[in-house]
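Below is a filled-in request sheet from our internal design queue. Each sheet records the structural input a requester submitted and the sequence that came back. We keep these sheets so that new team members can see what a complete request looks like end to end.

REQUESTER: design group, bay 2
PRIORITY: normal
MODE: inverse folding
CHAIN LENGTH: 409
BACKBONE (tokenized):
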């Protein structure tokens, strides 16, 4: 197993949300699948880090998120339990949050100090709906797209899942509060696990029976000691579950965490991509459970599309645990899957001139349909020290189909 790295809509608007930020959703990060905090404590940011970024990994060389290349030569990498890992364990599609030095706007580069990563769901696959591009596990519906990356063990992508029903999957995803489902950025097949995991909002709560609902799953927290007393509908939690359901079909919580990662440090720069998970107005909402003040922001695509569940890219700064936006841009996904969704830099290996494939940064790349060769030809692939590759995923989500290959400085 690779141990990887709606909400609160307050009628009173953002000022109400700010007053409750330490109790609820100061920044429990859906993009990171939780963190190393607990219901009574949290881990904060790295003091002095200039920039904060969250999203899914779209490339390597070193790590690329939201179009920024982060140098990982001195980075500390943590999973969602706070355990240390190597940067080599990061994969395309992983949900991450990054603390870094200043982002160079001209080169779109920065030096990462901390990368945290983790999935939203880990549990047994129960059903596959290929016609609607979705599957179900632990009572959660998961949608896939042209940019969903699949474990190489899942050759065939979504179609291959029908052959592994009952097996454990780990899913990195964004939660879509409007449709109450997850949109996967990466799907991995797990050999064995000690526990299952869910991260998302509580949809219903029974404080008498000590149960709550996430998706269609009923989760019992009756055996937890101490008992959580501050749970609420729409609150985000990360819960670890026993792998055998109870006789009534409910799942037993082994641990439960809330307020796992507040943005306790201010950051002069911040960029977050994700879904709007709570909404009061176009200028007061949450993204990935991070409260956003967009009262002074520009809206290049207008405000009408800034609604619950919308995919957005927010740029701004972090002040007192709130993302103060300078720009709110809609991400409609219309350009995804059409040429340059992913980017890799480095030295290739395992060159196969017959199959027209090679391996770069642990990813199999097909160069059979390259439209742009820059600084080299196909015949020179084996002679170039470093290359840059841009492309989109194959239909099964396991191979990067290159559209551009160039010499990398």
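RETURNED SEQUENCE:
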């Amino acid at each position: 197993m690779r141990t990887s790295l709606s909400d609160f809509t307050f009628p009173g608007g953002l000022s109400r949300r700010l007053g409750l930020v330490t109790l609820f959703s100061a920044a429990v990060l859906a993009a990171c699948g939780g963190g190393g905090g607990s219901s009574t404590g949290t881990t904060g940011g790295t003091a002095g880090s200039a920039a904060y970024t969250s999203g899914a990994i779209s490339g390597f060389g070193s790590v690329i998120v939201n179009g920024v290349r982060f140098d990982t030569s001195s980075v500390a990498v943590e999973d969602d339990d706070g355990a240390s890992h190597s940067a080599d364990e990061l994969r395309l599609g992983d949900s991450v949050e990054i603390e870094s030095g200043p982002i160079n706007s001209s080169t779109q580069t920065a030096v990462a100090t901390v990368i945290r990563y983790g999935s939203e769901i880990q549990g047994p696959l129960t059903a596959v709906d290929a016609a609607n591009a979705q599957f179900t596990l632990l009572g959660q519906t998961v949608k896939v797209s042209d940019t969903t990356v699949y474990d190489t063990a899942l050759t065939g992508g979504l179609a291959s899942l029908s052959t592994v029903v009952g097996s454990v999957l780990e899913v990195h995803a964004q939660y879509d509060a409007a449709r109450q489902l997850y949109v996967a950025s990466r799907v991995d097949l797990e050999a064995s696990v000690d526990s299952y995991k869910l991260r998302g909002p509580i949809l219903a709560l029974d404080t008498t029976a000590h149960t709550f609902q996430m998706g269609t799953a009923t989760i019992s927290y009756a055996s937890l000691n101490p008992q959580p007393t501050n749970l609420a509908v729409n609150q985000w939690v990360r819960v670890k579950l026993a792998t055998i359901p109870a006789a009534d079909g409910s799942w037993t919580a082994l641990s439960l965490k809330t307020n796992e990662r507040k943005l306790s440090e201010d950051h002069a720069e911040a960029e977050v991509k994700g879904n709007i998970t709570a909404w009061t107005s176009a200028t007061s909402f949450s993204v990935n459970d991070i409260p956003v003040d967009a009262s002074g922001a520009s809206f290049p695509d207008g405000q009408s599309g800034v609604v619950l569940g919308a995919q957005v890219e927010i740029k701004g700064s972090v002040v007192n645990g709130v993302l103060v936006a300078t720009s709110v841009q809609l991400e409609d996904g219309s350009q995804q899957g059409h040429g340059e969704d992913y980017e890799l830099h480095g030295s290739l290996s395992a060159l196969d001139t017959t199959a027209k494939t090679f391996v770069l940064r642990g990813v199999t790349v097909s160069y059979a349909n390259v439209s742009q060769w820059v600084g080299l030809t196909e015949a020179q692939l084996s002679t170039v020290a470093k290359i840059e590759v841009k492309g989109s995923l194959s239909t099964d989500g396991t191979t990067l189909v290159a559209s551009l290959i160039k010499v990398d400085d």
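SHEET NOTES:
- DSSP finds two helices and 31 strands in the chain.
- The helical segments are 14-20, 158-161.
FILED BY: M.R.
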